[in-house]
Amino acid sequence: MLDDSEITLKIMAPILADAGFDVRAVSSLRHFVNVVLDWKPHLIVTDLYMPDMSGAELCSWLRAQIQTAKTPIIICSSAGNEELARIVKEVGADGYVSKDEGPEALGARLHELCEEIVW
Predict the structure, then answer these.
(1) pLDDT by residue for the chain (119 residues), tens digit each?
(2) How far, in whole angstroms, is CA 30 from its chain's centroid?
(3) First to last CA, the chain
(4) Domain ranges in the chain?
(5) CATH architecture of 6-117
(6) Are the CB atoms for 53 and 61 separated by under 8 Å?
(7) Which backbone phi and psi does 59 adopt, to 5 degrees?
(8) DSSP class of residue 100?
(9) How far is the CA of 109 from the CAs of 21, 35, 89, in angstroms?
(10) What are the backbone dihedrals phi and psi of residue 45, each rounded to the nearest 5 degrees, phi first?
(11) Is 3 helix (H, G, I), strand (E, B) or coil?
(12) Which long-range contacts (CB under 8 A, 24 or more apart) does 50-58 make?
């Protein structure tokens, strides 16, 4: 999981772990790239609005890399659902989760998305 907010990571990572996900949470793009290349996750969750590279730009970059071209990517943001749906379609992400649904809904929503795209 990549999010530039340490607070968001501290809230979301345990929720995802409790939901059964093996989580690596990082707040910097440099650390994220190292984690992805070393760990080879089955699913990537990224924030949309970040200072170094947006989640949309990151998704496009991940799709261009051999190691992550087929890894499912979920964009997690407080942007509106219409904007998220448009961005997901434009950049080839596999889905989105609205932060507005609250942290409690994140694990359930990711499980729903995994049923659709991963498992």
Answers:
(1) 899 999 989 988 998 898 888 999 999 988 998 898 888 888 899 999 998 889 899 999 999 999 899 999 999 888 888 999 999 999 989 988 888 887 777 888 888 888 887 65
(2) 16
(3) 19
(4) 6-117
(5) 3-Layer(aba) Sandwich (3.40)
(6) yes
(7) -60, -45
(8) G
(9) 12, 23, 18
(10) -115, 125
(11) coil
(12) 50/2, 50/3, 50/4, 51/4, 52/4, 52/28, 53/29, 55/2, 55/87, 55/93, 56/87, 56/90, 56/91, 56/93, 58/2, 58/29
Q: Name the β-bridge partners of 106.
A: none
On whether the CB atoms of residues 80 and 97 are closer than 8 A, the answer is no
17 token code pair: 């772990």
Six-digit token pair at 102? 């609250």
Determine contact, residues 106/16, Cβ cutoff 8 Å. Answer: yes
Q: What is the pTM of this model?
A: 0.88
Rounded-to-10 torsion of CA 48, 33, 9, 100:
20
- φ/ψ of residue 3, rounded to 5: -150, 135
Contact at 8 Å (CB) between 113 and 95? Answer: yes
